[in-house]
């Protein structure tokens, strides 16, 4: 018999079925929150994977479109590769779970979360996060849980716990917080310039809710949890460390790693590695463990010097930012470009503007079709870290970094009415030594301003690191961490924002949570640093958005028409609008509300297209003057096209002041003529006169 456990969470019932389905998985939780249903499973291999020095954890979030009553598009009519939302959700689940597995565990672990139905009032991402934690806690997989997650929104200045899809989209805050029993272990946020104090309040509001969920999970584990299985430890033997220290003293290792040049440090470690390989050449067992042992030795050396002596590898003070540089317009002919450099981290961002029709359409678990007007893409080529590797397209890390920078800038973008463009920015990583996502935020902001996008405020971002000691009070916060401090430290706390408040947060840690003092300290440190970056670097390159878009960017003119006239502009099967586009070379977008946007690079052609549209939607009155082209000649008169798809007839008696016997005596096909409107004839057609034009 299966068991069902339930609790009240934010005014709705969260229930978990255990041993109802998925019984062959190590752990399975059949989750229900409202009508949202997610199947979460945790599985592990029986033996560790050979030849690896990391924990092979895979987290999957599967969006099944039947969950919202949709059939997938495309030829195959089945779900394909994971959507961007699925990848980002997988990353949010991964980040708090990974630190809670044993550091010396090398068995493959997969956490799979399959969304089977969606209630718009209960976001499936949250249910999957909780399901992954519960499935792992009740499994026999070693795990130092439980952990729990809560989402916080903000509507009209009030916090909303676990908001609905609609509240999540429209609110001023999208905050996800994961906690262990005592500490916060993960923070992910997008915000509309939320003040730091308000953000901290929201984080710890979520932390309180998480404690009630952990109590619920404890109850489930007590009743149905499996004993944790033993595993083969892959930890480096202490006797190997002792032998290494005899060959390479701590002073030698310290001298090797403490330099501000990444390449010099890597060369120093290469020399040390060769020295140790030679020393242990006859011990094959130790040789196999040597790379991991050297990494651990290097890590302990860096952490000790930072924690005890406040000495950073490149010699900076703990609050000091690396040398900064910024410039705009480094790429010709693009719509906007900027480069931001911080130490050995360098990002070039290019901005492209296009009509709103080119915004990205998203087919996901939202019942309504969703579109993205602003897109930020991030690329991380191997050459940026001096490696050789074939590009296989963006991975989860690249997608995550792009989404973070995108989230950082959305709050300051102009509305569609103010700036009717789709906007894409692309961050190309030229060089990387820590926190390229925050450099991408700075470069993107400047690129947007250089392109003439009237953003409301400047946005900058910075990352704060952490090294902890034996007690909660023993820690050092590091402003602007470089790669080595990220690898060997305990935290990567990224914060973006304006002078007024926070626009995005992403926090990764490698320990079992952060105290409130660390969270508050990191947020304060990031505010101080981002203001410094704006004032001392970014504003010197470009202080405000340019007043106009660049010469190579498309220009957009908007016109509001009567929605009932949309059909006249479009024409039968698009004939009229396509004819306007063919004649002028512009792009035309029309909304259901009758807003017409004409986009092009030639002002004359744009004006011509706009005049065509105005002519088509005008309610014709006697006396109006038009210029048109003779498109057809009959015995009784000529037809004049005065706008694409719009024609009127000039009777033979109205062509010339003197009597004529044949229309061809005066007109030929293709002649441009000026006519005056006489109203409509008995057949409902527009009636024109050429001979009466002068009288008007």
UniProtKB/TrEMBL annotation:
What compartments host this protein? Cytoplasm
Keywords, comma-separated and alphabetical: Cytoplasm, Magnesium, Metal-binding, Nucleotidyltransferase, RNA-binding, Transferase
The EC number of this protein is 2.7.7.8
Name-wise, this protein is: Polyribonucleotide nucleotidyltransferase
Q: Output one GO MF annotation.
A: polyribonucleotide nucleotidyltransferase activity
Q: Which reaction does it catalyse?
A: RNA(n+1) + phosphate = RNA(n) + a ribonucleoside 5'-diphosphate
Q: What does this protein do?
A: Involved in mRNA degradation. Catalyzes the phosphorolysis of single-stranded polyribonucleotides processively in the 3'- to 5'-direction.
The beginning of the lineage is: Bacteria, Bacillati, Bacillota, Clostridia, Lachnospirales
Q: Which CDD domains match?
A: KH-I_PNPase, RNase_PH_PNPase_1, RNase_PH_PNPase_2, S1_PNPase
Which residues are involved in binding Mg(2+)?
486, 492
Q: Which InterPro entries match?
A: ExoRNase_PH_dom1, ExoRNase_PH_dom2, ExoRNase_PH_dom2_sf, KH_dom, KH_dom_type_1, KH_dom_type_1_sf, NA-bd_OB-fold, PNPase
Listed PANTHER family: POLYRIBONUCLEOTIDE NUCLEOTIDYLTRANSFERASE, POLYRIBONUCLEOTIDE NUCLEOTIDYLTRANSFERASE 1, MITOCHONDRIAL
Please name the Pfam families in this protein's record.
Answer: KH_1 (PF00013), PNPase (PF03726), RNase_PH (PF01138), RNase_PH_C (PF03725), S1 (PF00575)
- Which family is this protein grouped under? Belongs to the polyribonucleotide nucleotidyltransferase family.
| Cofactor(s) for this UniProt protein | Mg(2+)
Q: Which Gene3D superfamilies match?
A: GHMP Kinase, N-terminal domain, K Homology domain, type 1, Nucleic acid-binding proteins
| Coiled-coil residue spans | none
Annotated ranges, domain S1 motif: 623-691
């Amino acid at each position: 018999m299966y068991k069902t456990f339930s609790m009240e969470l934010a005014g709705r019932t969260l229930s978990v079925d255990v041993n109802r389905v998925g019984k062959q998985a190590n752990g399975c939780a059949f989750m229900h929150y409202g009508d949202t249903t997610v199947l979460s499973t945790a599985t592990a291999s029986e033996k560790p994977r050979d030849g690896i020095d990391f924990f092979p954890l895979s987290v999957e979030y599967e969006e099944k479109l039947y969950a919202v009553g949709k059939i997938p598009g495309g030829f195959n009519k089945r779900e394909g590769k994971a959507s961007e939302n699925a990848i980002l959700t997988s990353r949010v689940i991964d980040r708090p779970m990974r630190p809670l597995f044993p550091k010396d565990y090398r068995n493959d672990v997969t956490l799979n979360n399959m969304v089977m139905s969606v209630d718009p009032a209960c976001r499936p991402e949250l249910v999957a996060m909780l399901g992954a934690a519960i499935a792992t806690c009740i499994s026999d997989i070693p795990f130092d849980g439980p952990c729990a997650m809560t989402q916080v929104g903000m509507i009209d200045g009030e916090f909303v716990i676990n908001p609905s899809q609609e509240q999540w989209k429209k609110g001023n805050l999208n905050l996800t917080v994961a906690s262990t029993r005592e500490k916060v272990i993960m923070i992910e946020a997008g915000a509309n310039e939320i003040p730091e104090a308000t953000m901290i309040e929201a984080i710890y509001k979520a932390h309180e809710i998480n404690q009630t969920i952990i109590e619920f999970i404890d109850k489930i584990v007590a009743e149905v949890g499996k004993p944790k299985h033993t595993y083969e430890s892959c930890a480096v033997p202490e006797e190997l460390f002792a032998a290494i220290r005899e060959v390479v003293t701590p002073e030698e290792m310290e001298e090797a790693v403490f330099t501000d040049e990444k390449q010099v440090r890597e060369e120093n470690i290469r020399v040390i590695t060769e020295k140790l390989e030679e020393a242990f050449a006859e011990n094959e067992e130790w040789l196999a463990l040597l790379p991991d042992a050297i990494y651990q030795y290097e890590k302990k050396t860096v952490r000790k010097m930072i924690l005890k002596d406040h000495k950073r590898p490149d010699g900076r003070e703990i609050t000091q930012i690396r040398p900064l540089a910024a410039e705009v317009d480094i790429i010709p002919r693009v719509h906007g470009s900027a480069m931001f450099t911080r130490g050995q981290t360098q990002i070039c961002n290019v901005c492209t503007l296009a009509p709103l029709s080119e915004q990205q359409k998203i087919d996901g678990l939202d019942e309504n079709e969703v579109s993205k007007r602003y897109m930020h893409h991030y690329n991380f080529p191997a050459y940026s870290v001096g490696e050789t590797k074939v590009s296989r397209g963006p991975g989860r890390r690249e997608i995550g970094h792009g989404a973070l920078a995108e989230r950082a800038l959305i709050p300051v973008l102009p509305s569609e009415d103010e700036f009717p463009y789709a906007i894409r920015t692309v961050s190309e990583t030229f060089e990387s030594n820590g926190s390229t996502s925050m450099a991408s935020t700075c470069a993107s902001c400047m690129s947007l301003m250089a392109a003439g996008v009237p953003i409301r405020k400047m946005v900058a971002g910075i990352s704060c690191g952490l090294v902890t000691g034996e007690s909660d009070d023993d820690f050092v916060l590091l402003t602007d961490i470089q790669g080595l401090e990220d690898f060997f430290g305990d935290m990567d706390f990224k914060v973006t924002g304006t002078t007024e408040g926070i626009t995005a947060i992403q926090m990764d840690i490698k320990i079992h949570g952060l105290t409130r003092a660390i969270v508050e300290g990191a947020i304060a440190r990031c505010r101080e640093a981002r203001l410094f970056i704006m004032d001392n670097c970014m504003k010197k390159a470009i202080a405000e958005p340019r007043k106009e878009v660049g010469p190579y960017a498309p220009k957009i003119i908007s016109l509001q028409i009567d929605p009932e006239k949309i059909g006249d502009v479009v024409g039968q099967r698009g004939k009229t609008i396509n004819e306007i586009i063919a004649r002028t070379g512009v792009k035309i977008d029309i909304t259901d509300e009758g807003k017409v946007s004409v986009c092009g690079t030639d002002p004359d052609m744009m004006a011509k297209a706009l005049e065509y549209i105005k002519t088509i939607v005008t309610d014709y009155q006697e006396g109006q003057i038009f210029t048109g082209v003779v498109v057809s000649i009959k015995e009784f008169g000529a037809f004049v096209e005065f706008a694409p798809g719009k024609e009127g007839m000039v009777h033979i008696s109205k062509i010339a002041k003197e009597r004529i016997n044949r229309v061809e005596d005066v007109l030929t096909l293709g002649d441009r003529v000026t006519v005056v409107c006489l109203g409509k004839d008995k057949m409902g057609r527009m009636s024109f006169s050429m001979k009466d034009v002068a009288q008007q």
